[in-house]
Write a structure and sequence with these properties.
Rossmann fold, alpha/beta, 15 helices, single chain, 7-stranded parallel sheet
Length: about 375
Amino acid sequence: MRILFTGGGSGGHIFPIIAVRQAFNALIELPENGKKINFYYLGPDKFAKENLNKERIETRFIFSGKLRRYFSLKNPIDFIKLILGIIQSFFYLFIWVPDVIFSKGGYGSIPVVFVGWIYRIPIILHESDSAPGLANRFLAKFAKKIILSFPLSKEGFGKHQNKTILIGNPIRKELLEGDTEKGRQIFKISSNKPVLLVLGGSQGAQKINEIVLNTLPRLLKIAEIIHISGEFDYENVSKETKETIQEPTYHLYRFLNAEELKHAYALASLIINRAGAGSIFEIAALGKPSILIPLPSSAADHQRKNAYDFANTNNQTGEGRAIILEQGNLTPNIFLEEVSKLINNPEKLKIMGQKAKEFYAMDTTQKIRDEILKTATRIDKKI
């Protein structure tokens, strides 16, 4: 059997692909199956090459152009990239002849899905966000199934709603294997204070970094902090904190790999993060309380919709599974007050974590794997 993955190439596309790929290990390793499954990835690079090869996914990269509904001088260039990506996809799909295509969405998936449809290869789309992206809405007409992560996503697919299945967003299994004691060693945790884990998505978040820096001396009085600044903002944050913070309870990193992240998650008493679907479902699977700060400029305001869909509140205060702070209204004092209220209320942190865990079904990746197997054109009866 041959399974082809595709997506936009960002962490939000690649990490769920890894999670789904890992779900096949249990089948492949069963001696009674005796069946080999070949895995391929076709799309833009970004995070793909360094992360997918170690999962035994054969990777090839294509050109991709962005879809826009407005005038831009980049439109002609992106159109040419799109055509080149389609030509490349014709070649690779002809060589590989996959039985099914699993697409995580994003502009980079458009050439692959379109060519797969021409070749009559069954296509499964996966939508991570509460507000479906433009690429997935466009590709819905070519898909046999559309797997949703959030209940409200269904409305965004219009006349293609009959193709949707609500399953969830897959996360990497190793993130569930963190250990607090090992985490204390790795991050050199030196106090018994609660641990505040500050993240900003795969690229970091400048606004979150600024808020943390403005409140850092006061935050360190109530918590030990693991701060992931992101690659682009690391030098600025590092320079400022070296000049003003001498506390051994502040730990700054550019990024964390999966091995480090799982232990950071295990340590965290409270998580500060954006509201990307990947981050939300990791928080949910681990049963962690969180403060979510949606990115205001996210496409179709999807991060804000993700956050409120996850928090599951009618009054939009965000109280429940998570606290939501709108970036436009966020000040250092408001941020400090919300963090302090939670850190000083262990019972509320516990309840939030329990509610968050209810949002994630632990068999999510297995259900997605089974949908892929059912949809494949050639299903070996041993599998």
